[in-house]
Design goal:
The protein is an alpha+beta fold. Helix content is 24%, strand content 32%.
Length: 193
């Protein structure tokens, strides 16, 4: 049951529930480099759609949604989880841009030939810390590590690119509301073994 009162005729708090998730974010230098690659891809294929601004580029690791709990309380608990994660920094690399199929929007994303093995391993580490804290999650078996560059109006074929590499040294807890172009960082931690 939600701690928040909801009255008919007023906005439903569940409808405005934010996305809350753990993510990896490139530093400003690499984010700018990746944003330039997105512009080149868009221009090369004359794609229409919305580019993701450099400060919002990220790799979603694990979304957490519980409309029964107020977001501020959930964020407080997840901040404690973030503090408990102990993993060493690791290299991230992407070597292809692909289109994900979907509804009206066709996300254009960076992916890796190795399937993002290091990213998957880090996601499993976070899931383990959550489980140790007594949080049970329903996690999709198929997790494709990726970074969304833009939401295009058409899907096109895969494009190999010069590999984009950087060391993941930090991870974050992000809160965003659908339709709001801001990502609010609610916690950020250094990776350390």
């Amino acid at each position: 049951m939600s701690d928040q009162l909801w009255l008919p005729g007023f906005d439903d708090p569940v409808a405005k529930y934010p996305n809350i998730y753990f993510a990896l974010r490139p530093d400003a230098q690499f984010a700018t480099h990746i944003a330039r690659a997105a512009v080149r891809d868009r221009d090369l294929f004359s794609l229409q759609g919305k580019l993701i601004e450099a400060p919002r580029l990220h790799i979603s690791l694990l979304g957490i949604h519980d409309p029964r709990m107020r977001p501020d309380k959930m964020i407080a608990g997840l901040r404690a989880i973030g503090e408990s994660v102990r993993e060493a920094p690791f290299e991230i690399h992407f070597d292809r841009i692909v289109s994900f199929r979907g509804g009206k929007q066709k996300p254009r994303v960076l992916v890796s030939d190795d399937g993002g093995a290091a990213i998957k391993s880090f996601q499993r580490a976070i899931i383990g810390v959550l489980a140790d804290a007594g949080v049970s999650l329903s996690v999709r078996r198929e997790f494709t590590p990726h970074m969304t560059l833009m939401y295009a109006t058409t899907a096109i074929s895969e494009v190999p690119i010069e590999p984009i590499r950087w060391m993941a040294t930090r991870f974050a807890l992000i809160e965003s509301v659908i339709g709001d172009r801001r990502h609010n960082v609610r916690g950020e931690w250094a990776l350390r073994a």
